[in-house]
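Consider what follows.

. . .
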Amino acid sequence: MSTTEFAVPQQSIEGMYTDHGGWLKGWLRRKLGDSCSAADLAHDTFVRLLAKDALPEIREPRALLTTIAQGLVLNLRRRQRLEQAYLEALARLPEPQAPSPETRVILLETLLEIDRLLDGLPRAVRQAFLLSQLEGRRQADIAVELGLSVPTVKRYVARALAQCCFALRRRVPPRLRDAAPNMDLSAPIAPEVRHQAAQWLVELQADDVDDDTRRRWQAWRQADPEHERAWLRVESFRARLQALPGPLATAALAVPASGGRRRLVKALALAIFAGGGASVLDEQRTWRRWTADSRTGTGERAERLLPDGTRVTLNAGTAIDLRYSASERVLRLVSGEILVTTAPDPQGQGARPFIVQTGQGRLRALGTRFSVRDLDGRGGATARIAVFEGAVEMTPAHGGVPVILHAGQQGTLMRDQARVSGPVGEDAAAWTQGMIVAQDMPLPAFLAELGRYRPGRLDWDEGVAHLTVTGTYPTANTDRVLEILLYTLPIELSYLTRYWVTVKPGAGGDHGGG
């Protein structure tokens, strides 16, 4: 016998609520042991009924209500488990410098608005967007994780960007207002232009982005004022998005639309108000990375042959820009670490000096092979330089006496001073061979180094700060390195997700420790 389907008038649902609502609340209260949650789920059960266009003929109302409510109970318990783990992770976060009240409001507003906008997206689109835009994952890695092709990942991310960038309230940072003082950045933008702007961002974030793509992007921006306005809106959105603590925000926003997700979002908002988002507010650095001439992602290394024959090796998480002119050859280190092997200027001996520009100052190569690491992103306004051949002249950005480093020396460059810090260590160029060389390195420093090659978040408990690491470790397999540490040190690994690992004190370390 087939089941008869019919539209359910609202008065019928009201009748069911009158006849069976009290019974359902009692059933849920006995199951959950919580009157408040029972009342919420009973309400949600009837909301589910109201949302249906048609229902089977209702012969046993209480059986139907318990079936719907049982599914809601399972979802609630799953969300509670995630919420508990999430809040414990928040409690373990270090206490950073608190952001300003204005910044706190912007972060909270952004988080809640994005949460609302994600409700309308399919799960796979939402996941691709969060992994790409909040965690900075490579598109190829996202494709593998979600079982999609790279073009599909790009399409999904562009779709979510087009929806979120232009539906988000039109708060424009002062930096962008100053860049376009005569442009109304809050005016509506045509749908096709929105889509194009989102696609350009995805292309700039692609693993194989090249100079031709960047030239076409710049040409698109210059072709029409509305294109530029759309792109500035994308920049505005990205700046606000990058202010959110990536793994935390992903943990909240990846949960399917529900009251549980709202609670996670509110918990994250409390963390932001306590200062949890302050360490990622460098929006200028973020945008310089995305639009740099060459860049590498987490765990990637790359080699570039420059127009003059100079070779540059980029470590993981590195971005560089090139500015060659008639008077000098300038490589700007936006972030990360590079190894430079300079070539003679093809325009003539000594015609144009080769300069590496960092946030701390300028490095003038004197026929040399040297490495530069910008440590600014790790909390200090310092660059570390190691010279393997020739010499390098270091000049601080804010004045100070230039200092020359010779082969076999390493030094530090700050905005107001430069100094020789000692001989080059054996670990200075180990990264070019895919290795980390540690000699009594504090475990937190080692994990910070390992984190450059591992997607997601790698944290540690204060209880392991006294441990040290010695040895040579491959960067290509960070899971294996963590297994080695687990075997040799008194630690344990706590996984909130596959991409969020915390190292805690434990009973391991059968073969030594710190």
